[in-house]
Design brief:
The protein is globular, with a radius of gyration of 28 Å. It is of the alpha/beta class and 469 residues long. The model has no long low-confidence stretch (mean pLDDT 82). It folds into three domains: 175 residues, no CATH class; 201 residues, Rossmann fold, CATH 3.40.50.300; 68 residues, Helicase, Ruva Protein, domain 3. The protein has an eight-stranded mixed β-sheet, with helices on both faces. It has a six-stranded mixed β-sheet with strand order 1-2-6-5-3-4, with helices on both faces. A two-stranded parallel sheet has the order 14-15. The chain contains 16 helices and 16 strands. 40% of the residues lie in helices and 24% in strands. Bound molecules: adenosine-5'-triphosphate and magnesium ion. The site of adenosine-5'-triphosphate has 18 residues, from helix 8, helix 12 and helix 14.
């Protein structure tokens, strides 16, 4: 019966539990359009929500499976179809059914003979992939079946027979709701002389949101980048560069864009693709970009991209090919959104940052008072640090010309001194440990403003004036 074994992964976006069933149902119905007898199909739906959601809430997904996917699969193939969907949770050898449903064609009556003859489709869902599809034949099906029979009996609906045997089922689908792990990889296979090299590109969910981006920038980001992409407008930007001194939230902003767009992040670093073998670096980079191009839910992040030095600075042959590959990729029409960050935009190849490849440049400077307050509040929350309201005012006033990263470091240092609590004393103590060259930073901020003026193309600026700092 279980000769056919297929497995599919659905990369769910951040979905509500009630949509999980829908999501899975759509995918399953696509593959079951021409069902094969006795198909044993495993579908994995990944989302970061599954960990925090209760079993009861997840069980509601069954409703969608029962009411939309089962009829959809079977309408064309079975004159009088009948299906079961169930949600089971297994932990340490114990299993518990949260929900099960029997779906039959409208107008059909539940009768003993029909039910004990055959179930056409049997879908069982679980969390964390604990259900072993090979055991499904006996254990889980029996469990679900007796649950259904006893529930129906209790409501006087059916079955005079005492021990109705579990019916035979024709199409079996196991749906694993897998909590998303922090690091996940896209595997890229690159052919080499007599072999295939497998490169793993890490994919992660964004950890920051637009609330962590300066208010002034946030609105521009939504108008210029997020909304057009969401509307799938042909004119939407597809390449973004974020520049500014170290620690002012460039990477955070890149993640926030991904977060707002519901995208996961594939970060490409030279350490992933550079090879000591002649010609391999280019092949691997090309392979990675090609593979990622097929994924729709991804943002490609080239963080601290200074390694893509301009052709005017570098003369290394491999290096120049890397840039050429990037240039070509950035030009391709149907590719994922690419976000680059760098401290030194003047070192990049000018051809990379021209519109059409990089459409929008974001310039970020040292944070103003309002932003420093938000950073401070975020940090105390993030690290679970106790504080009085007044202390936040003090932090804002003593961190002029600090970067986001330095404010974060100051708060952690003060919390260590204060034993998990921030007070005036611990903050002032921590402030003494920081050496900030205001004059130099003022000059950097001026340079950023100047870069903003000189740059040709679309530019979004967050470069607070001295009076705002
Ligand atoms: N909005 C924020 N709220 C709280 N902390 C923040 C915020 N933005 C940035 N930080 C802190 O500052 C750190 C540095 O931010 P980020 O990594 O985005 O800087 P960057 O500009 O990318 O720096 P680099 O150029 O060195 O890569 C973060 O790891 C975080 O601890
Ligand atoms: Mg960074």
């Amino acid at each position: 019966m279980f000769t056919k074994y297929r497995s599919y992964i659905i990369e769910a976006r951040e979905v509500r539990p009630s949509f999980i069933g829908m999501n899975a149902a759509l995918t399953a119905s696509k593959y079951l359009y021409r069902p094969v007898e006795g198909v044993n199909m495993v579908i994995r739906v990944r989302s970061s929500r599954f960990k925090s959601v209760s079993g009861n809430a997840l069980a509601s997904a069954i409703h969608t499976l029962a009411t939309s996917s089962i009829p959809y699969f079977l309408a064309n193939y079975e004159p009088n179809w009948l299906g079961i969907a169930a949600y089971i949770e297994v932990s340490g050898g114990n299993s518990r059914i949260y929900a099960a449903s029997l779906t039959l064609k409208k107008g059909m009556r539940i009768s003993n003979s029909r039910i004990s003859r055959s179930i056409d489709v049997f879908i069982v869902c679980d969390r964390e992939g604990s259900i072993d599809p090979k055991k499904l034949a006996s254990e889980w099906h029996r469990l679900v079946w007796s649950f259904i029979v006893s529930t129906l009996r209790a409501s006087g609906k059916m079955v005079s027979q005492d021990h109705a045997p579990p019916p035979i089922r024709r199409y079996t689908i196991v749906l694993h709701l897998v909590p998303e792990t922090k690091i996940e990889y896209v595997e890229v296979k690159v052919p080499e002389a007599h072999d295939v090299i497998v490169v793993k590109v890490p994919i992660k969910g964004p950890e920051w949101s637009l609330d962590d981006v300066p208010e002034k920038l946030k609105q521009d980001l939504e108008t210029v980048i997020v909304n057009p992409i969401k509307q799938r407008a042909a004119y939407a930007p597809r390449g973004v560069m974020i520049t500014g001194p170290p620690g002012v939230g460039k990477t955070v902003t890149a993640e926030a864009i991904a977060h707002k767009l519901g995208l996961r992040i594939a970060e490409i670093r030279p350490s992933i693709y550079r090879s000591m073998w002649y010609g391999m670096t280019e092949k691997i980079l090309d392979g990675i970009l090609r593979t990622l191009k097929k994924r729709s839910n991804i943002l490609v992040l080239l963080d601290d991209v200074d390694y893509l030095l301009g052709r005017h600075v570098s003369i290394h042959e491999t290096h120049i090919s890397e840039i050429t590959i990037m240039l070509r990729y950035l030009q391709e029409p149907k590719r994922p959104l690419v976000v680059m960050t760098t401290n030194a935009p003047e070192l990049l190849d000018p051809a990379i940052v021209r519109p059409g490849r990089i459409d929008v440049v974001i310039v970020m400077g040292y944070p103003d008072r309002e932003m420093r307050r938000r950073i401070a509040l975020k940090c105390v929350e993030r690290y679970g640090i106790r504080y009085d309201e007044k202390v936040i005012d003090t932090i804002v006033s003593i961190t002029r010309w600090f970067t986001n990263a330095e404010i974060d470091a100051l708060i952690r240092l003060a919390a260590s001194k204060g034993g998990g609590k921030l007070d005036e004393e611990s903050i002032m103590w921590a402030r003494q440990k920081f050496n900030i060259n205001e004059g130099m930073r003022r000059a950097i901020q001026d340079q950023l403003r100047w870069f903003g003026e000189r740059f040709q193309g679309i530019i979004l600026k967050y470069v607070p004036k001295e009076s705002e700092i």
